[in-house]
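Continuing the series of single-chain predictions for the mutant panel. This is the parent chain; the variants come on the following pages.
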Amino acid sequence: MNETTKNVGITEFDSNFFDNASKCWKENKIEQNNGTYLYRCCYIKNDDERCQLPICYGKKKNKNYSNIFCTVHMNISANKKRKFNDII
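Parent structure:
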């Protein structure tokens, strides 16, 4: 083993690792046509499915839930909202 190939304790990662990491990263995002991403709304509907709309990037209407809900779900009372992390 020469100086450029010595083991420094870094585990080798295979393509499955990166494919899984990419999949997990994209779970809460909506891909746009131009290759960018928007975060998805965190509202959980009655059928336990997550809202498919992008979050509201506008003015903060509710300090407790700013920038995690879409414009449709931003005004629902706080006690009726279930965040994505609350059910997983």
